[in-house]
Protein backbone atom coordinates (compact mmCIF):
# COMPACT_ATOMS: atom_id res chain seq x y z
CA UNK A 1 0.00 0.00 0.00
CA UNK A 2 1.29 3.43 -0.82
CA UNK A 3 1.16 6.24 1.70
CA UNK A 4 -1.20 8.15 -0.58
CA UNK A 5 -3.66 5.25 -0.58
CA UNK A 6 -3.27 4.99 3.18
CA UNK A 7 -4.26 8.63 3.55
CA UNK A 8 -7.32 7.97 1.40
CA UNK A 9 -8.35 5.32 3.92
CA UNK A 10 -7.39 7.39 6.96
CA UNK A 11 -8.84 10.62 5.59
CA UNK A 12 -12.28 9.75 6.89
CA UNK A 13 -12.97 10.76 10.51
CA UNK A 14 -15.17 7.71 11.11
CA UNK A 15 -12.39 5.35 10.06
CA UNK A 16 -9.86 7.21 12.18
CA UNK A 17 -12.19 6.91 15.17
CA UNK A 18 -12.65 3.19 14.54
CA UNK A 19 -8.86 2.76 14.53
CA UNK A 20 -8.67 4.68 17.82
CA UNK A 21 -11.19 2.27 19.32
CA UNK A 22 -9.29 -0.73 18.01
CA UNK A 23 -5.99 0.67 19.28
CA UNK A 24 -7.32 0.02 22.80
CA UNK A 25 -7.67 -3.68 21.96
CA UNK A 26 -9.70 -6.12 19.95
CA UNK A 27 -13.39 -5.22 19.68
CA UNK A 28 -16.48 -6.92 18.34
CA UNK A 29 -18.14 -5.37 15.34
CA UNK A 30 -21.18 -4.77 17.55
CA UNK A 31 -19.13 -2.82 20.10
CA UNK A 32 -17.55 -0.71 17.36
CA UNK A 33 -20.96 -0.10 15.77
CA UNK A 34 -22.50 0.99 19.06
CA UNK A 35 -19.84 3.66 19.67
CA UNK A 36 -19.71 4.90 16.09
CA UNK A 37 -23.50 5.04 15.75
CA UNK A 38 -23.68 7.06 18.99
CA UNK A 39 -20.88 9.45 18.05
CA UNK A 40 -21.56 9.92 14.33
CA UNK A 41 -25.24 9.05 13.99
CA UNK A 42 -24.71 6.67 11.10
CA UNK A 43 -26.38 3.33 10.43
CA UNK A 44 -24.99 -0.11 11.21
CA UNK A 45 -24.51 -0.88 7.49
CA UNK A 46 -22.51 2.35 7.12
CA UNK A 47 -20.27 1.37 10.05
CA UNK A 48 -19.83 -2.08 8.52
CA UNK A 49 -18.75 -0.45 5.26
CA UNK A 50 -16.10 1.59 7.11
CA UNK A 51 -14.86 -1.58 8.82
CA UNK A 52 -14.65 -3.23 5.41
CA UNK A 53 -12.60 -0.36 3.98
CA UNK A 54 -10.20 -0.60 6.94
CA UNK A 55 -9.96 -4.37 6.49
CA UNK A 56 -9.51 -4.17 2.70
CA UNK A 57 -6.91 -1.43 3.16
CA UNK A 58 -4.99 -3.63 5.58
CA UNK A 59 -5.48 -1.40 8.62
CA UNK A 60 -7.71 -3.84 10.47
CA UNK A 61 -7.93 -7.58 10.82
CA UNK A 62 -11.03 -9.60 11.57
CA UNK A 63 -11.38 -13.02 13.06
CA UNK A 64 -14.55 -15.00 13.66
CA UNK A 65 -15.40 -16.14 17.15
CA UNK A 66 -18.64 -18.06 17.02
CA UNK A 67 -21.23 -15.71 15.59
CA UNK A 68 -19.17 -12.62 16.43
CA UNK A 69 -16.49 -10.88 14.41
CA UNK A 70 -13.54 -9.46 16.33
CA UNK A 71 -11.62 -6.56 14.81
CA UNK A 72 -8.08 -5.47 15.67
CA UNK A 73 -5.52 -2.99 14.34
CA UNK A 74 -2.97 -4.21 11.83
CA UNK A 75 0.05 -1.98 12.47
CA UNK A 76 1.96 -2.67 9.23
CA UNK A 77 0.24 0.03 7.13
CA UNK A 78 0.59 2.49 10.01
CA UNK A 79 4.34 1.89 10.01
CA UNK A 80 4.37 2.69 6.29
CA UNK A 81 2.54 5.97 6.98
CA UNK A 82 5.00 6.73 9.78
CA UNK A 83 7.94 6.12 7.43
CA UNK A 84 6.42 8.40 4.81
CA UNK A 85 5.84 11.13 7.40
CA UNK A 86 9.46 10.77 8.54
CA UNK A 87 10.72 13.07 5.81
CA UNK A 88 8.49 15.86 7.16
CA UNK A 89 9.25 15.48 10.88
CA UNK A 90 11.99 18.06 10.65
CA UNK A 91 9.28 20.68 10.25
CA UNK A 92 7.62 20.00 13.59
CA UNK A 93 10.20 18.21 15.73
CA UNK A 94 12.22 21.36 16.60
CA UNK A 95 8.99 23.11 17.60
CA UNK A 96 8.00 20.22 19.84
CA UNK A 97 11.49 20.13 21.35
CA UNK A 98 11.25 23.88 22.06
CA UNK A 99 7.83 23.37 23.64
CA UNK A 100 9.21 20.61 25.88
CA UNK A 101 12.03 22.94 26.97
CA UNK A 102 9.56 25.72 27.82
CA UNK A 103 7.33 23.36 29.77
CA UNK A 104 10.31 22.11 31.76
CA UNK A 105 11.40 25.70 32.43
CA UNK A 106 7.90 26.56 33.67
CA UNK A 107 7.84 23.56 36.03
CA UNK A 108 11.26 24.46 37.35
CA UNK A 109 10.21 28.09 37.95
CA UNK A 110 7.09 26.98 39.84
CA UNK A 111 9.22 24.77 42.11
CA UNK A 112 11.89 27.38 42.82
CA UNK A 113 9.75 29.76 44.94
CA UNK A 114 8.75 26.82 47.14
CA UNK A 115 12.38 25.83 47.54
CA UNK A 116 13.34 29.43 48.51
CA UNK A 117 10.65 29.52 51.22
CA UNK A 118 12.20 26.56 53.05
From TrEMBL:
Keywords: DNA-binding, Transcription, Transcription regulation. PROSITE patterns: HTH_ARSR_2. The keyword Protein biosynthesis does not apply. Pfam families: HTH_20. Residues 1-111 form the HTH arsR-type domain. NCBIfam families: HTH_metalloreg. This is Metalloregulator ArsR/SmtB family transcription factor.
